[in-house]
Design brief:
single chain, 105 residues, mainly beta, four-stranded antiparallel beta sheet, 1 helix, 10 strands, globular
Length: 105
């Protein structure tokens, strides 16, 4: 139901090997639903329950950039799922000094 991919816009290539954690908010706590590394195409598909609620994807971009100079550290993206009948794709466009995201299809 939830997938992501990361594109390194500086290189024009997928960012492989990036650890991404998926969590769901339960009361005041975040419950981990899954953690994986992006594949060679920069993608992850999370097998998770189809539940309405707040979700958070945290991209460990600090580990991806390593010793390369960069500004942002781990990047959390929080989103709200209201319709469980559809798939949600949350991509990350990344470079050492910025990032953007959107709800994909």
């Amino acid at each position: 139901m939830i997938s992501t991919h990361i594109l390194d816009t500086t290189k024009g290539l997928p960012a492989s090997g990036v650890t991404v954690t998926l969590e769901m908010k339960e009361n005041e706590n975040w419950i981990e639903l899954g953690k994986d590394k992006t594949n060679p195409d920069g993608r992850i598909n999370f097998d998770c329950p189809k539940l309405i609620g707040l979700y958070r994807l945290t991209f460990n971009i600090e580990e991806y950039f390593g010793d390369q100079e960069h500004f942002f550290m781990n990047t959390p993206i929080i989103f709200n799922i209201k319709n469980t009948n559809r798939k949600y794709h949350v991509p990350l466009l990344l470079n050492p000094y910025g990032y953007s995201t959107y709800r994909g299809s």
